[in-house]
Design a protein that fits this description.
Pnp Oxidase, Chain A, 9 strands
Length: about 190
Amino acid sequence: MTEIQPFALFDSWYAEARASELNDSNAMALATADAEGRPSVRMVLLKAHGPDGFVFYTNFEGRKACELINNPHAALLFHWKSLRRQIRIEGAVTQVSDAEADAYFATRSRDSQLGAWASDQSRPLDSRETFLSRFAEMEVRFEGGEVSRPPHWSGFRVAPERIEFWQDREHRLHERRLFTADGQGGWHMGWLYP
């Protein structure tokens, strides 16, 4: 019997989305909850994925990171309107290694790197000019040299425990396929009513 793995299906759908979506085919909604269980959701960008999880990067002093550090569970949602598909992922969250964060940070544009230093993500800002002034200060600080990764900037990996593939069908007769981790490295696959 062939072991069912959801990652090949994800790779196939993701490749189609990369070819058909006009903007940010790697955009995913990230849902977190605070210590009292109050939810929060925002869009982030998928930067790596595989059987070990789905990776995104952020400022660790912002709201989402604080919530994930205190409650290391999250849900992700990819919605590709052009394909009439979505993928829901739920699982435990861990921080990526410093080596992974350094390697990814080095691939970002210089302005994005400088912005990571200039931003106090999610904190109140008195004016856009204040942020642009801080950005200009970072340009001077790192002029002529490489921009190192800020100590407060890294990534998270969501290790999937559940992955649901949803395909839109006529008359709302949608197709829903749910993969659930078996706790031993394998997956159970089943169908859900639309």
